[in-house]
Amino acid sequence: MSLLWVLGGLALGIAVGSVSGLIGLGGGVFLIPALTYFYGMSQKRAQGTSIATLLLPVGALAFWSYYKQGHADLKLALFIAVGFTIGGWFGGQYAQHLSDTALRRGFAVLLVALAIKLFMQR
Fold first, then answer.
1. Distance separating alpha carbons of residues 95 and 97, to the nearest angstrom
2. May I ask which residue range the UniProt record assigns to the signal sequence (predicted)?
3. Domain around 69
4. pLDDT tens sequence across 78-116
5. pLDDT for res 57
6. How far apart are CA 13 and CA 27, in angstroms?
7. Is the pLDDT confidence value at 3 over 90?
8. Helices marked H in 24-99 — which ranges?
9. d(CA 80, CA 87)
10. Closest to 47 in 3D by CA, of 103, 85, 109
11. pLDDT tens for residues 44-75?
């Protein structure tokens, strides 16, 4: 593990965390492509690493900023979190049976579809 590798990881985390906190978009949208391009990870390894990075910082620090300003519905968040936990387990299990190519293409299609929907909204 080189100093450049460590500093690159910290810089990537700061950049992705800043954008995620700013626009409320999951960090994986930015982090997964960065991990595949800059760190040469497979799609599955990038997805697993992305999920691991989001466990504590997004769950605690970014949330706290929104909560202090009254911009978080805790009751709804609890139900979503339970569903997210169940769905995350099933999705993670299913992803292990797909090829990296299929996962990467599915990820790309989802990003394009979301971009088109956001662009077309008034």
1. 5
2. none
3. 3-120
4. 887 888 788 889 988 999 999 999 999 998 998 899 899
5. 66
6. 9
7. yes
8. 28-38, 43-54, 57, 63-68, 74-95
9. 10
10. 103
11. 999 888 888 877 766 677 788 888 999 988 88
Contacts for 31 with CB less than 8 Å, ≥ 6 apart: 12, 16, 46, 49, 50, 53
Q: What is the pLDDT of residues 4-24, one digit of tens each?
A: 989 999 998 888 888 777 777
Split into its structural domains, the chain has a count of 1
What tokens appear for 37 in the block? 């391009």
Asked if residues 30 and 20 have their Cβ atoms less than 8 Å apart, the reply is yes
Place of tokens 């040469």: 40
Q: How far, in Å, CA of 103 to CA of 67, rounded? A: 34
Tokens at 85, concatenated: 């936990």
Q: Are the CB atoms for 20 and 58 separated by under 8 Å?
A: yes
How is residue 27 written in tokens? 């960090």
Stated length of the chain = 122
